[in-house]
Amino acid sequence: MKRLLLLSTTTGYQAQQFRAAAARIGIPLVLASDTCHAMDDPWGDGAISVRFQKPRESAGKIREYARHQPIHGVAAIGDAPTATAALVALDLGLRFHSPAAVELCRNKFLARQRYQQAGMRVPWYARFKAASAPAQAARAVPYPCVLKPLGLSASRGVIRADNEAEFVAAFKRIAALLRQKDVKIMRDESAGWIQVESFIPGREFAIEGLVTRGRLRVLAIFDKPDPLDGPFFEETIYVTPSRLGDSAQQAISDCSQQAITALGLSDGPIHAELRLHDDGPWMLEVAARPIGGLCAGALRFICDGHLLSLEELILRHALGEPVDGIARESCASGVMMIPIPHEGFYEGVENLAAAQQVPGIERVEITAKLRQKLVPLPEGASYLGFIFARGDSPQWVEDALRESHRRLRFLISAAMPVL
Ligand code: ADP
Ligand code: CA
Question: Which of 58, 104, 207, 348 has the most CB atoms less than 10 A away?
């Protein structure tokens, strides 16, 4: 019997989507996770307990499992499990990116070096030890610039600085974030560095794609219509298809392919982000995984007259099936990641029905939990929820998302006073 392996730190919504997709394909899915050892088998179907911080050890454990219960395809959610997924795929001869390539994707410094060697447009960049005093670095960098931790994601800890004073403040703020316990656990060796890059002006875009033997197949180009000029870089609205002209879209696809080749990404999903300026596209980063959170819900594909989810497409690809004949549905679609406006405790939301009734809105999904501590960017790493829209045009979808969000009223109580 065929079997698929899903590597995921959580058993949340995205993992459930993969599980449902596997069920539709008719192939059982086994989960490898490091969520919580008290909950070793969350779906009651023999989950493999691993530690994604120890990819070799985790891959060994999965290899042992596969000796008795063969695995025919592998998929990973989030950045952390990609290293284990790559080792497992290499061992078992499955379709996935190589261990070296996924490592490059998780290190913004090494990735920039590769882009530079490949002759791509690269901003000025350097990395500094987070433990060092920032005054000297502040004199060495160009302005405006962007400071960011080497190994985090979702714009966490990414801050723009326009002068030395802002640089020093941002540097200290990121260093403090990197000292936080949960962050240290996430990424030991790269947790000690802060990367600085000159600020790349321009509009920002995201690409969702599947790579087969090193060749990128673009599944969608998303416009990010909100200006992302800093000082923090909150992701909000993603809309596809892009409103860019054909040649600009082609330039974005070509730039993504160049980055994929430079990093050596060969087989599996990618999510890339880039900026388009007057002189052409500038790669920000390529992740060796699909779009995160619930955002995949903004994408649907057509294959032989059937609708396919992104998860289904990724699993089919992981099993070695061709994906050439598959195209994104013809309508426009989009998602809004609802930002956390300020720190506090989540107490609920009003006007949800009104927000859901905006024409074009498919659903509003609130993911914040009652009494949950809410931390906005740059320290935080979550959203209040997600709004999904579909319609005839990208502008219509964008307007629907904004109107739906405008109607929502979030109740956030003040942070508990420090005693
Ligand atoms: P993360 O992995 O945390 O998402 P990114 O490198 O993708 O880190 O940066 C997050 C966001 O910060 C980007 O989407 C972009 O808006 C902004 N950003 C990052 N680097 C630069 C840069 N050099 N110039 C301009 N904006 C940047
Ligand atoms: Ca990013």
Answer: 207
